[in-house]
Structures are given as C-alpha cells and as structure tokens.
Queue: 4 jobs
Job 1
Amino acid sequence: MVLVHVLGRGTSLSWIPSESVSGWLKGGFDLHLSHYDKPPADFLSGVEQVEQMRADDRFRFANVISGWADFTGARPTAGWSEESGLLMGSTTVRLALGSATFLGYSLPVLREIARPDDDTFVLTQTVGGRTGVPLPRTVRHPPFVRWQAPIVWTTLTLTLRRDGTTQVELVGASAFPRHWVYDETGALTAKSGVALLQDWLDHSFGPRTPWGNQDSTALVVAAETAIERRLSGDIMAGGRRRSVRPEVRTVPEGYLLTRQGEPGEHVFLVLDGVLDVLVDDELVAEVGPGAVVGERAVLGDGLRTATVRARTRARVGRVLGTDLDSSSLHELSLGHHREDEQSEATPGE
C-alpha cells in the first residue's frame, strides 16, 4: 500500500491599521502612548520571518497553523507540527521619561482534527489572548465595567487532501483588529473585511469568545492585487498632486458609491468594510480593504460601468482619476475585466 504524506501550513497576522481606531481610544494613539502598525509584508518566507516581525513589533499576534496527514488504505492519520501555535506580540507604551513594554497574555491554543471523508483531514486551530496593558471601560454585559483589555483571536482551518493539495481559511476571528491570511507558499490570500473597534470593546470577553464556547464568523474577502497595492499608496498620497489629500469618508451599509450608467470621475480605495460590485443588478465581485474601484469610467467615456454598493459600513478614500497614473489604471482595469469574465463563466458562484 502506497503511503501519501501531506504537509501543510498557513498563517494569519493581526495588526492595527491607522484608520481603524476612533473615539476616545484614538487619543492615546495620537499622543503616541501606543502605536498603529504598518501593513505587514505581502509575502512570508517562513516562521523565521514571522518571529522577526514579532521582535520588530510589526503585529499584535499571529496564528501559525501547521500539520500533516498520512493517507493509507486502512488507517489514515493526521497531526500537528511543532511550529504550530500562537505568536503573541507585545504593547509598548511611550511615556514622558521613556517607554514601557507589556507582554501580551496568551490563552490556551484550541485544536481539533476532523476527517470528513477518507481523502480529507481538516485541522482547526484557535489562538488568542489580550494585551498586558489595562483598558478600563464600560461594557454592555455584566459586570458592566471592565479593567482588562478585550480578547483577540483568530480561528484557522487547514485542509489536507490525499491528492496533496492544501487550503487555509479564516473561519472565525475577533471583531478587531485587522486579520491577514497567508497560504502555504507564504502569499497573502485573504483579509478580514471589517475591523469593528466598538463591537470588540463591548463584547469580546467572558462567554463571548472561543474559550467561552462562542466564536464569531469572520467576514473574509480576497486580498487585493499588486497593482492595487501600488495604487493605494498613490491615492493616499494624493495622486500626482501630492498637496491634494484624498477625501476620506465613512458610508453606511447600502450606500451607493457609484451607479451604473451615471457619470463619474473619481477612483475609490476601500480602507475598511466590504463593497459589492454589480453589473445589470447582478453581483460580479465583492471587495474589501485595499481594493481600488471606479477606474473604467475614467479610462472610458466617463460613465460608470458598474454599481458599487456598501455591503457593510465602510470607510473609503477617493481621488480624481486624472490625478492617477493612467497606465496603472489600465492595468487595474484589465484585471477587473478578467474577473468579470470568470464571474460570467461560473454563474451562481
């Protein structure tokens, strides 16, 4: 009997973007008592890079999921690799006379292995904890006042198949901060669509966490493309007119950023939230943080070719399309055209 040995791994990195903090908590960041995080790398070379990023204070925590499966005709087995687990970051508070670093408080790693059929194993791993810095606040559940910070977590699944293929998915997560997901090759593949600070402050403690037997489903969207990452930097810098900053605004669920057939001259960058893209009232794409939309009207006759609607409350930045590099917009448009064709080829998906 031939033994098939399958190895798989994946990673999620959780970090605090600058646009995700608001209200009274934002004051502490503005005073540099704490800090926002720079976006993590677009590619991870391995666990060693993740360890170095933790040492450099580049993220709040990481979920490294790694495992194996041996498939035989009689008794397939699966297990966890030694590197699998939680990498908890630290919080540095800057004070007048210097700074103090508080190590995060780690909760036990939660794991299970399922075998839905003879050719598949699904490994599920939940990791998380809280910062070592107190966060006194009123909350919506007894005892209505909390001193400790809320809990953060991610739940990843690693699917291992007899044919050698693997898949990593983010199936649960705290409402805050932002969570990025990397596949076995180290490529950034998905992101959490929203970072809901107030929901996290109000609810993420006690029984409303995986350690209290209650996970939260993550709203996950595909990661943006390389050209979108390049354009996002241009948009936030104001395009070619560096003195003109983008207009950043928060829109409610259901808001229409563009309407098919109407004129438009702006290009939009999603900073937080999820948008639906519809053509002739049919959903052709869903996009999240980092995505850039609205370029076709700028490149074409000035009329919108799609309706863009906020599925969730969203924060977006916009600039005039004429302030952006036309060749980059053309490259983006080609990518969107291919996505439209794929959507038409697989109706209902």
Job 2
Amino acid sequence: MSYPSVYPTGVTVFKPEKCSSGYTIFQAREQGAMLIDMNGTEVNFWKGLHGFPNKILPGGYVMGHLGLRNNAYGMQDQTDLVQVDWDGNVVWKFDQYEYIEDPGEKPQWMARVHHDYQREGNPVGYYAPGLDPKVTEGNTLLLCHKNLTNPKVSDKRLLDDSIIEVNWAGEIVWEWICSEHFDELNFSEAAKNILCRDPNMRAAGGGMGDWMHINSMSVLGPNKWYDAGDERFHPDNIIWDSREANIMAIISKKTGKIVWQIGPEYDTSPELKKLGWLVGMHHAHMIPRGLAGEGNILVFDNGGWAGYGLPNPMAPKGAKNVWRDYSRVLEFDPTTLKIVWQYTPAEAGLVMPADSYRFYSPFISGAQRLENGNTLITEGSGGRLIEVTPQHEIVWEFISPYWGAHMKMNMVYRAYRVPYDWVPQIPTPVETAIQPINVKTFRVPGASIVRSKESKVEGVMPYQGTTALCIADDEEAK
C-alpha cells in the first residue's frame, strides 16, 4: 500500500446544512490542547495542556494533563489530571494516587492516569442533552496504572489497570483493580499460557507486563435497558475495553464483578460470529440518553494486531494472534449484539480488500454520536477527523497539521465536539461552506492538465517549462 507524501491539512470538507456544528477539541501533538471551529479556525490554544484525551466542559473549561512520568520508569503515566479555565489557570487538580520515587527523579505524588477519565454529571465526556458535566463540584472517575504481581496472570511484574473515583477534594472514595478479576475474563487455556510466559512485557521500569492495556472507561448513565429491569446496565456501572485482550466489559459499580462481556473470542456463538472479531478496539461506550441510538454500544474497532491464544503464522508464540488491516466503527445492541449501524471501508466507498487500508487506524481513535444523529470519527493514526451522516456521507473533514517532534506523526488520540454555547468567551463564528476538492483535476501551482485527443496516451510531459499531467480524453477525465 502507498500514501501521498503531500496532502492538504485543516478542514477540507464542510457542508454546514448537514453538520452538527460546534467547537472541536483535540491534542495538537506535544504542543497542547487545540480548540477549532467548523472552518478549522483556531479559537483557543492551551499550551502544554496534554490530552490523553483533552475534554472541554461548559463555560470554556478544559481538562487534561500537565506532567508526564519519565518513560524509563513508567508507560503513558500522566502525573496529574487538571481542569483549567479559558485562560489556562488551574482550578482543580488531582495527583494523589501513588507516591513515586523513581531513580534520579524528584520524588512526587502522581495520578498515573492514562487514556480516560469522566467528570460526574455526564457519562461519556461528550455532549448529550441534559447531561452536562459538573464544573465546580462533583466526583471524577480516572483510569490509572498500578504495578503489582498476580500469580494467576503471571509471575512477572504487571502494569495493571485500575479505575478510581475521587471527590472534589481529591480523596479516593472507590477503587477497582483489573487483575483481581482475572478468573472472570474467560481466557482460554492457550491465552493463559502465553499470558503467563509473556504478559505483553515492556522495557520501562525494568520490565512490566502491559497485559490488558485498557484504553477507555465510562459510566453507562441512564438507559432503556435498566429502565426495563436489566440490572447489568445500572446507570452507575462502568464499561471499559482492552486493546491487547480484545475484551469489552461492563462492571458493577456496587460489587466490582463483571456483569456483561464480549471477547476475548468472537467465534463462540452465532451472535458473536455475526458481530465479527473486534481487534485492538478503542473508545467503547454506551450512547447517552437523548442522542440517536441511545443505549447502543459505539466503538472504534481498530483492527491491527491484538489478542492472546493459539499460535499461528502471524503470531508464532500466540501473542497478538488476531490481525485485520482495516478499521470499523460499530454501533450495536448490547442485548442481542446485532449491528445497528457501522462505518467500514465498504461504507466509505472503498474497494475491499484492495483499498480497505484507506480507512485504517491500528491504534488510538474514537467515535462520538452527535446531536443531529451524525457521528464524529477520530481516525487517529493519520490525524483525520470526519463527521459522517447515518447514510455514511462525509460532511466535515479535518486533517491535523500538527506533527510530533519525536514520533513524526500527526496522530490525534481522540477528539470531541461540543456546542458553541459551551464557550461563552467568544462570539459564535460565521460558518463558510467548503466543497470537496476534485482530486482528479486539482493540481499544485506549477502543474497543468493537458489532454490529448489524438494519442489517448497518459503520462507526464514537459509543457511550457512546467510539468503537466497528460490525461486521456475520456468521460472520466472530463
């Protein structure tokens, strides 16, 4: 497969009459949190406020992280979770999960938060009618790391995932640790074998097993399933997904037990087979009440490589034993596992399998259901954000122009759209439609299109001192 070396960045498509307009926040790589309007205008920038992810709250407040643990000792550990105002002043901070004394580093308290967090009042971290997150009070859920050893998993040191709840004063009032529920996760004997031998070992900290790599966590919130009497979907229960194990689960907030789960295998029932294998997934959550599809699960099914099980030619030891080279965004009913809506290379109009890599982000990424029923998709590894209609039309597209200094990529972990009135500090912007460029005829300055009716030859030829593309005079060229 191949990719262009030159392509436009910023907003490349905008059809205002079909969009759910508002501001979009995302992490501009190492620089900080960036807020843009629908035309891509940068309306505010919080320098140094890292986003894993960044989330915006009503009133122009933004959440994120100000510190990162030295990667020699930790992996993706953010030292804190903060809330700042429009001008960047810290109005709330939590960093009191674990006191860390790394060699050669100043001892300090750290939150060790990674990948996700949720402020009370809103279950998922994005706009839903009547479910506004609290900004001056309330509890916060954080997805964190904890190093430990659990012989049920492996005799090796684990980089385990935990979920904690803290109150406004920063006191930890609830904690859940993933490895304590190993027996509930339904791993096969083959998976347990490879996990015991190699729980996805990472070099940081002298070696530790990132065995689950949970990358999203949110509460379910009010939903029709619980209203109908299904206790598995209690509004306080928490849904999460594991990138490495291909598991999506809901845990009881009251007991900590897993009450609903799909994966790690997807061939054990007709319903799972029809849903298909979820591989390396991100941002699994229940669509909040008040939005189209409320109560269904929305997830970015990355593809790529993940899972533990029997060895195969792609995974001779049984680690990362499931592969798929394209992504899917799935909305499905959690009670029947029936797919209600999806966006895959096929819905994107691509030829499968030859062209399917053109909708493919093997890591990071996410999806948000918007107020008008559209879906905002973060195709993260290529820094591409798209808003698509239920009929799969792209009505807004943005390509991030921000590139990393070390990892030379313009990747975006996860973006969010919020209404204009969440940001009262600035006037509602004037929107200007941006029609998609016809890539068949668009040329950079210095190149021209030349058509030859006589020869029907296609190629590159010199023309008046520039380089011109000669295209056959057929109906497609017209």
Job 3
Amino acid sequence: MRRREVVGLFLATPSAWAQQVRAQAAARVRRVGVLLTSAESDPDSKERSEALERGLAELGWASHNLQITYRYGLGEVEPSRRAAAELLTLAPEVIVAAGSTGLAVLKQMGLSVPIVFVSVSEPVAQGFVKSLTDPGGNITGFTNLEPTVGPKWLGLLKELAPVVSRVGSLFNLTTAPYAVLFSEAIKVAAPTFGVEPVGAVVRHSSEIETVLADLANEPGAGLIIMPDTFTTVHRHQISELARRYRIPSIGPFRFFPAAGALASYGVEVPDLYYRTATYVDRILHGELPSKLPVQQPTTFRMVINLTTAKALGLTVPPTLLARADEVIE
C-alpha cells in the first residue's frame, strides 16, 4: 500500500467514527417529562397532550426516538411536588411544565434540566424568567393571558348581561398570586362599564360555593373567572354554581363555557401546546433555553354558551353571536 493511501485511510477513520457517533446519538431514545395541571382522565389533558405530540411528530419525533412521560399536578402545590419528583426519577432531558403552580414547584427544586413552560401568565413578574427576550437560566416557554385582557372580559360580560352591576374576580391567591394584576386592571376599567368590582378570592375548593352565594346575595352579580390552575381544575364546580345562583360568568378558556359558564375569551390553549413542541425540539438538538425568548399567544377565541344564556334569561345580541368563534347550544 502506498504511503499516501495509508495516510488517507487514517485521516478518514476519525471522520467516519464521528459520523457513527452522531448517528448513534440521533438514534437513541430521548426523554421528555410533562407536568400537566389537569387530571389524566380530563378530556382537556388528552387534547393538550395530543397537540404537543402532533407538533413533535411534525418535527420528526415519534416513539422510536422519543419517550414522553406525563404526570398530573391537579393544580395544587403538594400533588404537583409529588408529580415533579416522579418525573425526575426518570431523568428527563427536557421538562414541559403547564401552569404556574407546577412551574413554581420545579423552580423551587433548583433544577438544571431545561424547562419549557406553557400557559403561564406574567412569567417575569412571578420571577420565572429575567425577561421575555432574555429569559436567562434554564427556563423559557409560552405565556398565557396578560392583565390587559381584563377590560375585554368586563366589556364582553356587560354586552351579554347589561344588568350586571357588581363583578367578582374569582381566583385562588395561593396558586395564582399574579391574578391580583388582572383584578387591578378590571378595577381600573370598572367605572367605564358602570360596574363595581368586588372580591371573590378563595384558597380551597370548599370556599367556592360560599363566595358565589355571597356574590349572588345582591342583584346585578357577575363573575370573571381568572386564568388559574385552581379554577381550571374546578371549572365544572364553578360553572355549575354560577348557573345555580344565576350569575353570568365569563372565563379565559373555551373549557369554561363547555363546562356551563356563559362565555369565554382568551387563548386557544391547544395551540400553545402545539407551539411548545418547537422549543422542546430545539433544546433536544442542543439549544439553550436561556437563548430562546419567551413567546406570547397568537390565537384567541370567543365562545358563547347559548344554553346557559337562555337558562339565565339573557338574549345574546345577534352582532355578538356573529363575532363569536363558537356558539355552544
């Protein structure tokens, strides 16, 4: 063998070896953990996980190269802590955290594993990231609604139920401390709509009925359900009690009117999960979460439950029905 051929062989070998290593790395099964707020049996959990997996599949991730493990925090601190601990035993390379409660638990654990949050309001104010454009650390993701939507809810509630004169903003101060910012925005806008803002803060599901009964004690009651893992988990109870006490209610997501609330205006939640797949993919390919800017919602929907409107004796203006993205009958 000539010397040039021998040298060429040795030069080619490291390159071939590097290609083989890269191929093996690409072929190995990667691990992603997902911490959801709702129960495994909740249809919305299924819809969100399907949206995330559809986004990942479109980016080339499937069962042969990606293992996704789900755990359910149920919108409460202790269940979220247990669920997070279970995920960590599986050594995920990326964690997707839904909502503020689960994300707060993960941050308190001081993890170094990359975390992509989804459907979180005010991540800067809550101390999860340094800024939207420069998150820093190991956390980034996709935000939920911001306080500026508060007056929009108030205006929509008055269009649907002009008799409303007192409006409570329902949230759990433990799971959604940021909701105070939404309440302040509503308080500032309230005089414009001729309504009085009143308190409707709870700390446990056992307090929901008491708060709504107190709200209904005087005429003209209305209810704004805040974006909160607690209100999401207890949406059926909240919506049913609002109907029982004849309180027109509006929530931030479609699943509230689907559960019996009067209406919703807010983010298309499955779209957030679908978009989250892009950041999971980029991190699995080596990008740092600190370099991925926090993204904000792009798709919003208005949904009206016409059955609830009729049960409350309300006539929805045709112009409002025409603006709705969906009418539930």
Job 4
Amino acid sequence: MSIGRIIETPACVAEGAAHLARQEPRFAAALELTGPLPLRRRKDGFAALLDAIVSQQVSVAAADAIWARMKAANMVGPRKVLRASDEELRACGLSRQKIRYARALAEARLPYEALREAPTGEVIETLIALPGIGRWTAEIYAMFSLGRADVFAPGDLALQEAARILFALEDRPSEKALRAMSEAWSPWRGVAARLLWAYYRVAREREGIR
C-alpha cells in the first residue's frame, strides 16, 4: 500500500495549498488572509513522541520548561528514561502518570525507521496502542514528523473552530463530522490542517479587534 505524498519542503505545502484553493473557494479566501503556510516538519523518533507526552495538558511555556530540564539532564533517549529513577524524572517536572507513559514508550522499542514506510493507518494504530498516546498525538506525529500529506487531526479544537468560522457552520463540528468533511480535501488534508490552523490565528485576532 502506498504511503502517499510526503511533505518535505515549503514547495510541497504550496502545491497542496494551490490545489485546495482551486477545489474550495473558502480555502482560496483563507489563503488570501494567511499568506504562505508553514512547513512545520519535525524530526521523528522517540524524542518526538516523548516531547508530545510531556506537552499534554500543560501550557506551552510549562512544556518547554520541562523539556529543557529533561534535555539538560540528558533524559530524552529511551535508555536514559529507563535508567532514571522516579525522583529524577519528577525533578524534571514529569507527573507520576507521565513517568509511566515515558517508560512505556521507552520499553516499546518502536520500529521508528519502519514507520517511515508504513501505511498511515498502521502508523496510527501502532502509536495509539501505547499508553499516553491518543489518536490526536498519533495523527500529529504522522503529519509533522513523518510528513504525511493526507493526514488530518479532526479532534483538534482549533481545527474544529476554524472550520466553523470559515464554513459558516452553526456549531463547532464534532470530530466525526470534521473527519467526514476533510475527506473532500484529500490528498492534501495535511495542508488543509495547516491552512485551518493559520486561519484560526487570523480569525482570533479579528475577533479580538471587534
């Protein structure tokens, strides 16, 4: 099974954005407001998923501070996490639950290189089988760490709200409803997500002015 397009450069994002603008006038209008969309590629592997776990249910500033302490303590690799004591991990800012998730991730020994070539559905199912990794985290990993062009994250509240505003919906769409909507944006759903996130920031600023 093909893994589809991989987003590797800003030109890939621009190609996807142009396709979406041709297919959907509201996307074309949103792009006029947002300008060029960001690449947002990240590294894949253990540290990327550990960082996602660290970031759950805390502010961006808090997550950055915890991650900085973990890097300073050299605790962002699987062996280091497994060797660290609870006290050492707590000193970095991890909760008891996140310590359990971090250790489970380290013990899983995921085949990160193989995931680069695996079908997206298989990637998602492999990741959500681990404690502490939900569908949203798995989809974000596939989108940004693996560069999958046709992945969307309909559980994301900002995407739901952006879709509500852009498509003039009466209510914020549910995860199920937004997933169904996003099927029309294939094979560039990952670019549609970037566009909606960028549009959400513009819409929030406009609402703030009002």
